[in-house]
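look at this fold:
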Amino acid sequence: MARCTAPVHGHRTESGRANCSACGGSRYRSYTPYSSYSTPHSSLSSSSTGRSSSGQTKTKARWAPVGSTILYTPSEIRTLTPVRENIEKRLSLPDLRDVFLCHAWDDRKGAAKELHDLLESKGVTVWFSEKDVLLGTSLLREIDKGLVKSRVGIVLVTPLFLKRVEGEGIADKELSALLARDLLVPIVHDTTFENLREVSPLLGSRSGLSTKEESMVDIAAKIAELVTS
């Protein structure tokens, strides 16, 4: 009886499976004695690799702690690796917040507040204008202090944020400072990177994270792993 070669060589293509004397054609559907070989393959996929909604293979990041189940696409790894390297250089600096959250003022009670709360629930310290700018203080001065005292900046890109950047408001000032520091992770929410590039080609040239690909909960988990592990 023909034996399947998958345990040794694997079926890397559909044609390879079709040409296998055990698995090809109708024999593949009816032949079952070696079906147990599927177990280790499937467990590997769920623990260390996976696929995004766009079909990209996802893997663990090098900074992931033991036991982490968070997976990243290749583009996310490319984007986050230099950020992580800069974070590691700043870990010894005292009294720094983990994250500076840059957002449009009108998002402060919506998407920005949601992201802030998710990050803090995972042990991330966040500079957030809604709680860190006291009544009667200079907003610009407090923003400058927040930028200096944070390890990494997150830009929450929403339709409201794009409008503020177009109008060269406070968000634009924060954005310029974050870009200059090269410690920046764009998070696109309810819009696209294409729309971002039309408003800010410099920021839009960087890839980041998007709620079109995964939930805000999953994105917060990635940021938390990036800055605290």
